[in-house]
Design brief:
Blueprint lengths: L2 H12 L2 H6 L4 E5 L5 E4 L1 H7 L3 H4 L10 H18 L1 E10 L6 E12 L6 E10 L1 H34 L11 E8 L10 E9 L2 E9 L3 H18 L6 H15 L5 E11 L2 E9 L5 E3 L5 E3 L18 E5 L4 E5 L1 H4 L2 E2 L2 E2 L1 H12 L4 H15 L8 E8 L1
Antiparallel strand pairs: 1-2, 1-5, 3-4, 4-5, 6-17, 7-8, 8-9, 9-10, 10-13, 11-12, 11-14, 14-17, 15-16
Helix pairs in contact: 7-8, 10-11
C-alpha cells in the first residue's frame, strides 16, 4: 500500500457515521410525532446558536418564525400524517440569542412501526437557504423593477401618443367631426399614426391624418415634426400640396432616411354646403359618402412624403352637400389581416355605406371596431380614423 493509499484509507476510517451525522453540511433533527425534538446534530446548533440541551424536548414549531409556526400546524404536520413525507418546504428558524431568522428548506420523512403502522419518529433535514432566499429576493426585486419600468414606458408611450391626437375635437360651425384611434398590440410602444383638426382661417378648417414609418421614440420625433409642420404651414397656405411639400422638405432636411404618408383636407362652408380641397402624399384617399348613397374616393394619389427627392402632391377640390360624410383612415384599417386576407378599401366603402346614418363618433368607432374584429381583436398595426359630416 502506497503512502497516498494509506492516507486515503485513514481518512475513510476517521470519517465514521457519527462524524458524518454531527458535522454534515446540513442540519439533522429527529422529531417525535407531536413535533418534540428528540435529537439534533452539531450543524443545527452551530447554524442556529441554540444549545443542544435547550432545544431537546421542545417542539420544533416553537423554533420557527410566527407565520411558519402556523404553517407547520396547518400544513406540514397534516402532510406528514397523511403522506409520510414533505419535500422542499421553505421555513425560517429563529436563531439564538439575536433572534436572527435562518431561512431553510425542510425535507422530512416519517418512520413507522412495522407491526402497527404507528409513527415512531420524524427524520428531518434542513438545508441553509440563505443564498437562495437572497437570490429569490433579488429576482423579485429585479422583476418588480422591470415591471415598474415597463409601466413607466407604457405610460410614456400613451402620453406621447395622446399628444399626437387632439385632446378634444374643436367646434366646427356647420360640421360634425370625430376621430378614433387604436394602438397596435398592447399600446406599450409609441405608434406612427396621428390626426389633427384645427382652424385654418375664418370659417376654414384643416383635417390631417398620417402614418409615420416605424414605432417608438424615432417615430414620435417624426410624428411631432409632421404634425406641427402642418400646423405651422396651413395658416400661410390653404393648399394641401404646398403644406405637404413643406413637410416633405422638413423631413428631407432632418430625417432623410425616414418617410411618412399623409392626407390633408381643407374645408370651408359654401352656399350649397361645403368645399374641400384635398391632397394625399402616398396615403389612402378620403372616402365621401354622397347623399345619393354612393361612396367614392376623392383626390389623386401622390408620392410618399420624405421618400423621393421631389414631392408630387396634387390638390383636388370637391363639393360637399349637407348630410355628406368624409372618412379618412390609415392603413391599419385596410391592412388588417385574417387568414392571409386583408380588410381592404372595398370593405371600408361597404362599411361606410352601411353606417352613414350614424353620428360621426359612432362611424369612426365602427370602422375601428370592424378592423379589429377582422383580425380577432389583435391590432397588428395602429388604426386611426377621422370622420367629418356636413350639417
Amino acid at each position: 500500500m502506497t503512502v497516498a493509499d494509506r492516507a486515503f484509507y485513514d481518512a475513510l476510517v476517521e470519517d465514521d457515521a457519527e462524524e458524518l451525522y454531527e458535522n454534515a453540511p446540513c442540519a439533522y433533527l429527529s422529531l417525535l410525532p407531536d413535533g418534540s425534538i428528540a435529537k439534533v446534530n452539531a450543524t443545527f446548533t452551530a447554524w442556529t446558536g441554540h444549545a443542544r440541551d435547550d432545544v431537546l424536548g421542545r417542539r420544533f414549531p416553537d423554533l420557527l418564525a410566527p407565520g411558519d409556526r402556523i404553517f407547520y400546524e396547518t400544513h406540514i404536520a397534516p402532510m406528514l400524517r397523511m403522506q409520510g413525507l414533505i419535500r422542499e418546504i421553505a421555513v425560517d428558524v429563529v436563531c439564538a440569542p439575536s433572534s436572527v431568522r435562518l431561512p431553510v428548506l425542510m425535507n422530512a420523512a416519517v418512520k413507522v412501526d412495522g407491526a402497527t403502522g404507528e409513527p415512531l419518529v420524524v427524520r428531518a433535514v434542513l438545508f441553509d437557504a440563505t443564498e437562495r432566499r437572497r437570490y429569490e429576493r433579488e429576482l423579485v426585486a429585479a422583476r418588480e423593477r422591470a415591471e415598474a419600468s415597463e409601466q413607466r414606458a407604457t405610460a410614456l408611450a400613451r402620453t406621447l401618443q395622446e399628444s399626437f391626437l387632439p385632446a378634444a375635437m374643436p367646434q366646427m360651425p356647420g360640421f360634425d367631426v370625430a376621430g378614433a384611434y387604436r394602438p397596435a398590440g398592447d399600446g406599450s410602444e409609441v405608434g406612427g399614426d396621428f390626426y389633427d383638426v384645427f382652424a385654418a382661417g375664418p370659417d376654414r378648417w384643416a383635417l390631417v391624418l398620417g402614418d409615420v414609418c416605424g414605432k417608438g421614440a424615432a417615430a414620435a420625433v417624426l410624428t411631432a415634426l409632421a404634425r406641427y409642420t402642418v400646423r405651422a404651414e396651413v395658416p400661410r397656405s390653404s393648399s394641401p400640396r404646398d403644406v405637404l411639400g413643406a413637410v416633405h422638405a422638413a423631413m428631407l432636411r432632418s430625417h432623410p432616411d425616414r418617410y411618412c404618408t399623409a392626407v390633408l383636407a381643407v374645408v370651408e362652408r359654401s352656399a350649397t354646403g361645403a368645399t374641400m380641397t384635398v391632397g394625399a402624399g402616398g396615403h389612402h384617399l378620403p372616402l365621401v359618402a354622397r347623399t345619393d348613397g354612393a361612396v367614392e374616393a376623392v383626390g389623386r394619389p401622390g408620392t410618399i412624403i420624405g421618400m423621393l427627392d421631389e414631392s408630387n402632391v396634387v390638390d383636388v377640390r370637391v363639393d360637399l352637400s349637407p348630410g355628406e360624410i368624409v372618412v379618412m383612415f390609415t392603413d391599419g384599417v385596410t391592412e388588417a389581416r385574417r387568414d392571409g386576407r386583408f380588410f381592404e378599401a372595398d370593405a371600408v366603402r361597404s362599411l361606410v355605406a352601411s353606417v352613414r346614418d350614424d353620428d360621426v363618433q359612432a362611424i369612426a368607432d365602427r370602422i375601428v371596431g370592424a378592423a379589429l374584429d377582422f383580425q380577432h381583436g389583435d391590432a397588428a398595426d395602429d388604426i386611426a380614423v377621422l370622420v367629418l359630416k356636413v350639417r
